[in-house]
Amino acid sequence: MKELHTQRLILRAWEPEDAVFLLDLVSRSQTVQYLGPDPMPMTTFEQAAATIIVRRRAVREHGQGIWAITLRNGGELVGNLLCKPMSEQMQRLIGMGLADQPREIGWHLHADAKGQGYAMEAARAVLDYANKRNVTTEILAIVDPRNTPSLQLCERLGMQRFGSTTGYVSPEHVVFLVPSANDDGQRVRDDGR
Fold first, then answer.
1. Is residue 167 domain-resident?
2. Cα 54 to Cα 13, 50, 64, 97, 98, distances in angstroms
3. Number of domains into which the chain is organized
4. Closest by Cα among 65, 40, 69 to 55
5. In DSSP terms, which residues pair with 77 in a beta bridge?
6. Positive or negative torsion for Cα 147, 188, 183, 186
7. What is the average per-residue pLDDT within 145-159?
8. Is 123 inside any structural domain?
9. Are 18 and 42 in contact (CB under 8 A)?
10. pLDDT tens column, 165-182
11. CATH at residue 89
């Protein structure tokens, strides 16, 4: 996984010593509140350490990753950003009928880091990286409609509302799509739409 640099941020691999921060991030109800019908905050250091091991193994291809977001000045951790292939099971659950295995992009910022443009800066860096790596599969964001900041971020990133789904988690979620470079500008779906 490639380390990415922006004006204010470094997106890097999660390290074992990041477990304390990850526990603090994912133990907060406001961080996980939009992650399903019964979100379960992380409760132990051991869970955080195990999650980091999984994150480090999860992605090995270029153009994708599960990054720790850190401040360029000082290295303070501020959040998490992922861009990784969506599982076949998840594709079936959301029922969007895409022809190829899409990737999902998502982010979580620590409460102390919100409202400073870090999610926008990090997401733009990852999308630029995927584009430079000629990632040709669709990139989706699946957003709870109550999550106004993420809805607004998707729109500011130029993502297009592609539809909605109740299969991801309850309640209904909005599906955003990163515009691709298809010759005709149309999305490729395997259900004929």
1. yes
2. 12, 6, 15, 28, 27
3. 1
4. 65
5. 70
6. negative
7. 94
8. yes
9. no
10. 876 666 688 889 988 644
11. 3.40.630.30
Nearest-angstrom CA–CA distance, 142 and 154: 10
Cα 179 to Cα 52, 85, 97, 154: the distances in Å are 31, 17, 17, 11
Could you tell me if residue 163 is inside a domain? yes
pLDDT digits (tens, 9 = 90+) for 121-142: 999 999 998 888 777 778 899 8
Structural tokens at position 163: 């539809």
> Residue 9 to residues 26, 77, 113, 119: CA-CA distances in angstroms?
20, 10, 12, 10
| Domain range enclosing 141 | 4-177
In a domain, 192, yes or no: no
Q: Both tokens of residue 113?
A: 């880091």
Contact between 101 and 137 under an 8 Å Cβ cutoff? The reply is yes
Write down the residue that tokens 């000082």 correspond to: 74
Helical ranges in the chain per DSSP H: 19-26, 29-32, 45-58, 88-94, 118-132, 148-156
Tokens of 188: 């490729």
Q: Which residue in this structure is represented by tokens 């599969």?
A: 137
- pTM, full prediction: 0.85
